[in-house]
Amino acid sequence: MRKRTLFFLLIGATVLAVLAVSQWLIPSAPVSPSNDNQNAKTIGSSGSSGTGDGQSVSPGKSTPDAQASEVALTPAAQHQLQVLDEILQSKNDNDPRLDRELRTLDESAKAALRAKYRSMPPEKLNERGTLVFLLGRNLNSAADVAFLQGVLEERPCLSLADCSKSEGAAHGEEAHLESLDETTLLYVQLAALDRLEARLADPQITPEIRQATLAALRATEGSQSARVAERARRIRQHYFPS
Q1: Which residues contact 215 (CB under 8 A, 6 or more apart)?
Q2: What pLDDT is recorded for position 187?
Q3: Which DSSP state fits 101?
Q4: Which residues contact 112 (CB under 8 A, 6 or more apart)?
Q5: Domain extents in the chain
Q6: Could you tell me which of 161, 184, 185, 180 has the C-alpha nearest to residue 170?
Q7: Alpha-carbon distance values, 184 to 39, 121, 172, 191 (Å)
Q8: Is 195 in contact with 139 (CB distance < 8 Å)?
Q9: What is the pLDDT of residue 145?
Q10: Where are the alpha helices (DSSP H) in the chain?
Q11: Mean pLDDT, 10 residues at a time, the chain of 242 residues
Q12: Contact status, residue 93 vs residue 126, Cβ threshold 8 Å
C-alpha cells in the first residue's frame, strides 16, 4: 500500500515538473497592437470622443466647415456640385443650368456650397458671388440667413489683386473707373443683400426668417463699407418701417 502511494506521489511530482519546464521554455504569444489601434480609430472616428491629436471635442461646438464635411451628399447634390464646378470653370454667369439644375438645393448641397465658399480666396469675387446667389435663393431657415449675415460682416475687399491691400487714390477718369471697381469689390456683399431683399418680398416668408433677416440687416448697418451699410439701412426701413 505504501509502495502504491509513493508511486502516485512520484507521478504527480513528475507531471508538475514537466509543466513548469514547458512554461519556461515556450514563450507567450505577443499581444498584437492591431486590435487596440483599431479600437482607438473607431473611437476617434465617432467625432464625439476625440480628435487625432488626442484633444477632446464637444459635439455641440463643431465648426460649420466640420459640420459640412460630416454631411453625406445626396446623389442629387453630387450632381449639382459637378455642374457647379463646370460653371465656375467656364466663368459663364448666364449658364442656363444655374436656373435649370441649381435652383433648389437640399441641406447637403447647401453645406457643401458653404464649405466651398469658405475655402475660396477672397479675391475670387465672381465665384464667391455665384455661391452667395445660389445659397441666397434657398433661405429656408434662420441658419441660412445667418450664413449671409456672416458674408455681410466680412471685411470689404480693397483691391482686385489683393483684398487686404488698398490701392492709391484716383482722380478724373481713374476715379470713375474706381467707382466701377468698387461695385466689383462689393459684389459678394451686394449679392447677399439682393437675396435678403428678395426673400423679404416673398409673401410666403416665415416669421422666423423675417426676424433673422431683420437682425442681419441691423448688423450690416455697421459695415465698414458705407455703401453696403446704406443699402442695408434702406432695405430695413422699407420692410420694417416702424
Answers
A1: 149
A2: 97
A3: T
A4: 68, 71, 73, 77, 81
A5: 64-239
A6: 180
A7: 52, 15, 19, 11
A8: yes
A9: 98
A10: 2-25, 34-45, 64-70, 75-90, 97-100, 107-119, 125-136, 142-152, 173-185, 187-201, 207-220, 226-239
A11: 45 46 42 37 32 33 45 93 97 95 97 97 97 98 98 95 79 52 94 98 97 98 97 98 86
A12: yes
d(CA 155, CA 214): 20
Instruction: Please check whether residue 98 is in contact with residue 87, taking contact to mean a CB–CB distance below 8 angstroms.
Output: yes
| Amino acid in the structure at residue 58 | S
As a whole number of angstroms, the distance between CA 111 and CA 163 comes to 25
* Cα gap 143→227, rounded to integer Å: 25
Q: Report in angstroms the alpha-carbon separations of 37 from 31, 41, 60.
A: 12, 6, 26
Phi-psi region of 235 (alpha: psi -120 to 50; beta: other; left: phi over 0): alpha
Question: What's at 191, amino acid-wise?
Answer: A
C-alpha cell at 162: 489683393
What is the pTM (predicted TM-score) of this model? 0.69
What is the structure's pLDDT at 5?
A: 42
